[in-house]
């Protein structure tokens, strides 16, 4: 069985950029999973520091209103990995999930760490590159011209253990749409 992990689509992150395109792709993918009656699991990164935009008591830590209604289950986490000390693995096992699809925020942190952690736990993993977003840019990493999503997607793809697709490839491979 497959499941969709929607990583950290939280108000504070969404509000930091123009993610309209990414959010539309995420919603289309979520709708595909809902139509198949496959689980849609959201994660929320929760910080304990009051000055963090994702402080657990702040409105910024809430799931973004554009997608939150789709959550079948919500996992709260405090590290980039959605699996570390969260009970996610046990929940997926109870559902009989063996294939995880990953979308959400931030591409180079929580999405990538979750993809690797899922593989390490024996899941088949599909990372939908253009249905991830990041609040960071090439200035953040002092690497002029860096396309973070493409870089992360390439690294994961080259691993030969994580399937990396863009939205069009996902539609072609996993949906009945033409």
TrEMBL record:
Keywords, in A-Z order: Hydrolase
InterPro entries: Isochorismatase-like_dom, Isochorismatase-like_hydrls, Isochorismatase-like_sf
Superkingdom in the source lineage: Bacteria
Stretches assigned to the Isochorismatase-like domain: 3-143
Pfam family, one: Isochorismatase
Keyword Transport: no
Ribosomal protein keyword on record: no
Family: Belongs to the isochorismatase family.
PANTHER family referenced in this protein's UniProt entry, alphabetically: ISOCHORISMATASE-LIKE DOMAIN-CONTAINING PROTEIN, PEROXYUREIDOACRYLATE/UREIDOACRYLATE AMIDOHYDROLASE-RELATED
Protein's name in the database: Isochorismatase family protein
Organism: Virgibacillus tibetensis
């Amino acid at each position: 069985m497959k499941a969709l992990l929607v990583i950290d689509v939280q108000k504070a992150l969404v509000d930091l950029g123009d993610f309209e395109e990414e959010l539309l792709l995420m919603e289309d993918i979520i709708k595909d999973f809902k139509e198949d009656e496959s689980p849609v699991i959201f994660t929320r990164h929760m910080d304990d520091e009051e000055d963090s935009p994702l402080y657990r008591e702040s409105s910024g830590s809430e799931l973004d209103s554009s997608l939150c209604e789709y959550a079948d289950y919500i996992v709260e986490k405090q590290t980039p990995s959605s699996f570390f000390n969260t009970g996610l693995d046990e929940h997926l096992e109870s559902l009989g999930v063996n294939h995880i699809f990953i979308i959400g925020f931030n591409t180079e942190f929580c999405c990538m760490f979750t993809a690797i952690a899922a593989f390490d736990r024996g899941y088949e993993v599909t990372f939908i590159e253009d249905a991830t977003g990041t609040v960071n840019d090439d200035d953040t990493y002092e690497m002029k011209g860096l396309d973070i999503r493409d870089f992360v997607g390439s690294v994961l793809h080259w691993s030969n253990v994580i399937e990396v697709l863009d939205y069009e490839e996902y539609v072609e491979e996993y949906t009945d749409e033409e």
